[in-house]
Amino acid sequence: MAPFKIVLIRHGESVYNQENRFCGWHDADLSLQGVNEAKQAGQLLKQNNYLFDCAFTSVLKRAILTLNLVLDELDLHWIPVLKSWRLNERMYGGLQGLDKAETAAKHGEEQVKIWRRAYDIPPPCLETSDPRWPGNESKYSMLDQSIVPRTECLKDTVERALPFWHDEIVPAIKL
């Protein structure tokens, strides 16, 4: 049996990355640098003779655009692509959209570091009435509102993504 390769690519720089804001599930566009990064990733994969049978991405525009730019460089727009909310970035809750430096000044650098790096300590929750809560977006309308996160720690993110890994990605690898 031939070995399988899985390639993980982070999205290119987003406008929120550029502005030093917590992005989370906010659907930020790629910056010009992010577009160039995605193209360079595709070119590097092409130079190293990578070919893919399928691709997976979140439903966040920055990830979808990154994938499309990579596939364009590889001339692989025809392969199946499965998008899932389970592959979305971590939901930053009440930090989403906030400037990172201002948040550190307000709450203290150590507290922000805990929210960002602790495995099982989430940032403050968003209320479902908050316009930043993703449950208010049509792209998540097919989900039971109780499973749309109001915040996530890294542990929650892993628990959200693992079912997709086991149910979709692993079977695709075994084909």
From TrEMBL:
Would you identify the family this protein belongs to, as annotated? Belongs to the phosphoglycerate mutase family. BPG-dependent PGAM subfamily.
Binding-site residues for substrate, renumbered to this chain: 10-17, 62, 89-92, 100, 116-117
Q: Which GO terms describe its molecular function?
A: bisphosphoglycerate mutase activity; phosphoglycerate mutase activity
| Protein EC | 5.4.2.11, 5.4.2.4
Which residues act catalytically here? Answer: 11, 89
Electron transport as UniProt keyword: no
Question: Does the record bear Phosphoprotein in its keywords?
Answer: no
Catalytic activity line of the entry: (2R)-2-phosphoglycerate = (2R)-3-phosphoglycerate; (2R)-3-phospho-glyceroyl phosphate = (2R)-2,3-bisphosphoglycerate + H(+)
The record ties this protein, via SUPFAM superfamilies, to: Phosphoglycerate mutase-like
- PROSITE patterns cross-referenced by the UniProt entry: PG_MUTASE
Protein's name according to its UniProt entry? Phosphoglycerate mutase
What are the record keywords, sorted? Glycolysis, Isomerase
NCBIfam families from the UniProt entry = pgm_1 (TIGR01258)
